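Mods, move this if it's the wrong board.
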Amino acid sequence: MSLEENFAKLEETLEKLEQDDLSLEESFAAYAKGMELLKQCNEEIDKVEKRVLVLSEEGIPEEF
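Not the wrong board. C-alpha cells:
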C-alpha cells in the first residue's frame, strides 16, 4: 500500500479507537493494527528520505 493509503487506514483505526462501544479485545486489536500501520508509514518515510537530494551551496545535488 502507498503511504497515503496507510495514513488513511491509520486515521480509520484512530476513529475506531475513539468509539465508546468498543470492547477491550477490539480496542487491543485496533491498537495493534494501528501500531503496525505506523511502523509501515515510518519505513516508507525512511525510504523516501534516503532518496531525497538537496542542493549544496554550489548547486551540486547531494544525498540528504
